[in-house]
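Is this the right way to post structure tokens for a design question? Let me know if I should format differently. Anyway, here goes:
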């Protein structure tokens, strides 16, 4: 949070040393080691981050850890995007979404929808797809009261020209577009979540209202 990336790496290294000293499993070590990838990226040590994440992925695959594997793939997508491999980043994030829906963790799902929108926007995706994934992330965050909502709304506002009608305004269309990604089931997810507003359509309308207020 403070941007002290080397200190973050040093502290995590101490944590891992302690875990190895007490005989922690490889899965437990990978769970903690994963947290070093973001500081490595911020220090421009991209290949080290990639090597770390590939190891985490191999451990989580062996352990059949769906939740961990989804996070590994989402992180690898970020690495590949930084390396300029847009198509690979998009496919990795789609794979992450498939696994995250299977694991059922709303925060990770919202983050991956937002990330996928960013990669699609950066690498020539259709505006309809970009906005649908941004709206999906924002609706999940809105209904669950997560702090990331402000970031997701700003992303929508930045990409939406002032006084221009959004290419998508209906929750049903958001779901159809998002569900083009294998494994995604946005409507079913929203139906299971706490509801600050009665349904997905009301949440989409509120998110778009918040975004318009920023333009």
């Amino acid at each position: 949070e403070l941007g002290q990336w080397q200190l973050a790496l040093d502290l995590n290294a101490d944590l891992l040393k302690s875990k190895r000293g007490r005989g922690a499993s490889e899965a437990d070590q990978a769970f903690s080691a994963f947290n070093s990838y973001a500081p490595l990226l911020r220090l421009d040590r991209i290949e080290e981050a990639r090597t770390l994440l590939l190891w985490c992925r191999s451990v989580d695959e062996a352990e059949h850890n769906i939740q961990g594997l989804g996070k590994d793939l989402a992180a690898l997508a970020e690495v590949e995007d930084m390396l300029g491999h847009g198509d690979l980043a998009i496919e990795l994030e789609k794979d992450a979404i498939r696994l995250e829906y299977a694991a059922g963790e709303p925060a990770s799902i919202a983050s991956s929808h937002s990330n996928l929108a960013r990669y699609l926007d950066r690498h020539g995706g259709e505006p309809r797809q970009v906005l649908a994934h941004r709206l999906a992330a924002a609706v999940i965050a809105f209904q669950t009261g997560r702090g990331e909502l402000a970031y997701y709304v700003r992303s929508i506002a930045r990409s939406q020209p002032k006084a221009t009608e959004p290419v998508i305004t209906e929750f049903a269309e958001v779901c159809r577009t998002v569900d083009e990604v294998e494994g995604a089931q946005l409507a079913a997810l929203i139906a299971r979540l706490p509801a600050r507003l009665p349904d997905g359509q009301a949440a989409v309308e509120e998110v778009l209202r918040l975004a318009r207020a920023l333009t």
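Format looks fine. Someone answered above. Worth noting: DSSP finds twelve helices and no strands in the chain. The chain has a mean pLDDT of 95.
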